[in-house]
Amino acid sequence: MRDERRTGDESRTHDGTRLRGDDRAVSFSVGYALNLAVAAIVLAGLLVAAGGVVETQRETVVREELDVLGHQLAVGTMETDRLARVGTSDEDETGESPRADVRVSLPSTVAGTGYSITVRADELELEADDPAVSVTVPLVVETDVTETTVRGGPLDVEYDGSGDGSLVVSES
User: Fold this and answer.
1) Which domain, by its residues, includes 65?
2) Does any domain span residue 72?
3) CA distance readout (Å), 115 to 26, 59, 132, 146
4) What pLDDT, on the 0 to 100 scale, is given for residue 149?
5) In terms of pLDDT, which residue wins out, 6 or 45?
6) Is 23 part of any domain?
7) How many domains, in total, are found in the chain?
8) 13 within some domain
């Protein structure tokens, strides 16, 4: 028979091995917890880094879309300018004041955000609401331009020779 005496804090199993000093189960649990902690830290770091990349990409997309839309509006404005000049040269022959109206179909939003367009004599400035991105597109026309600010969306570029003789950009 075995002598199963307990001495001090030592505990023994039914086969007589000591429990105090046996740290195999603790080692497994601690290792597992450390692996989970390291995985959580790595995942959090990746999410933070990816969030910054996504925001930068969104700003790039908005900037590029605004640039394309600005050039589309500039082409529509230059087309109206050309039509107005041709009509003005024909005014002497016909006796009628020239009129020109070109519709430019632009979307109301870019990358999910609204935008505004400021029309000036020699440039168009497009500004997104969020993120705060601004793009300037040159505008080369011979006819005067009425300076104004409009929201993005379908626009009309008009010229009425009987009025002040300038190009007007307005929301459709």
Assistant:
1) 46-171
2) yes
3) 60, 13, 10, 20
4) 97
5) 45
6) no
7) 1
8) no
